[in-house]
Amino acid sequence: AQGADVDFYDPYIQKITPTRKHPALTGKESVKWDNIPAGHYDCIIITTDHDDVDYPALLKTNALVIDTRNALSNAVGGEGRIVKA
User: Fold this and answer.
1) Phi and psi (nearest 5°) for 55?
2) DSSP-assigned beta bridge partners for residue 83
3) Across the strands, what pairs with 46?
4) Is there a contact between 56 and 75 (Cβ–Cβ < 8 Å)?
5) In angstroms, rounded to a whole number, what is the distance separating the alpha carbons of residues 83 and 15?
6) Model confidence over 29-50: pLDDT tens digits?
7) What are the tens digits of pLDDT across the range 6-36?
8) What is each CA distance from 52 to 30, 55, 83, in whole angstroms?
9) Rounded CA gap, 81 and 65, in Å?
10) How far apart are CA 60 and CA 26, in angstroms?
11) What span, in angstroms and rounded, lies between the C-alpha atoms of 50 and 78?
């Protein structure tokens, strides 16, 4: 509603199915992990902790990372850019 461009990555959900609360997101596809360019995102929010996701690699994007699942609890190199929520 405020004009933000939003993408998502999930290795288990390739496309958003219809929902009552967010019909505008129907059909939005997960970005490919290899296509997440450094510097493209201002903020990354971790909302699900999947074991097979390389979370420390997100720190290479130089974006602010909001970690709601403590997925980066042992990460090195993200000082000042990791917000635990």
Assistant:
1) -60, -40
2) 66
3) 67
4) yes
5) 28
6) 999 888 777 788 899 999 999 9
7) 899 999 999 999 999 989 899 999 998 887 7
8) 16, 9, 21
9) 6
10) 30
11) 19
